[in-house]
Design goal:
Elements lengths: L1 E2 L2 E2 L1 E9 L2 E8 L9 H16 L4 E7 L3 H9 L3 E3 L11 E7 H7 L1
């Protein structure tokens, strides 16, 4: 992710299987966190995931202490589930998911 030619973070999809993709966003410059970049990135990634990659569900893991990110994900339609991906199972995280049909009605 770049802002005015400055690198600020990474984002993308991983573990894409059976029309389900795991979304991730990382804004590495603390002074830019909370400025709305994550929201813009999230909406672009959701559009790409559901419309270009034709995913039926998008999932993610988020640290439980990252309240701002959790609120953004919930506003976009993500729901907290009670399981973690293998990669995150020993960390204090929420596993969240968004179905394509819910995305269509909330975005």
């Amino acid at each position: 992710v770049f802002l005015e030619k400055q690198y600020i973070g990474n984002c993308g999809y991983k573990n894409i299987n059976d029309n389900i993709g795991e979304l991730w966003i990382y804004i590495g410059i603390e002074s830019l966190q909370g400025k709305g970049f994550g929201i813009k990135i999230l909406h672009k990634l959701l559009w790409l995931g559901f419309n270009f990659l034709n995913l039926s569900k998008i999932v993610l893991n988020v640290a439980r202490y990252n309240v701002a990110a959790i609120k953004i994900y919930q506003k976009a339609g993500f729901e907290i589930r009670n399981k973690s991906s293998i990669e995150w199972e020993n960390r204090d995280t929420f596993f969240m998911e968004l179905q394509k049909e819910k995305y269509k009605t909330t975005n």
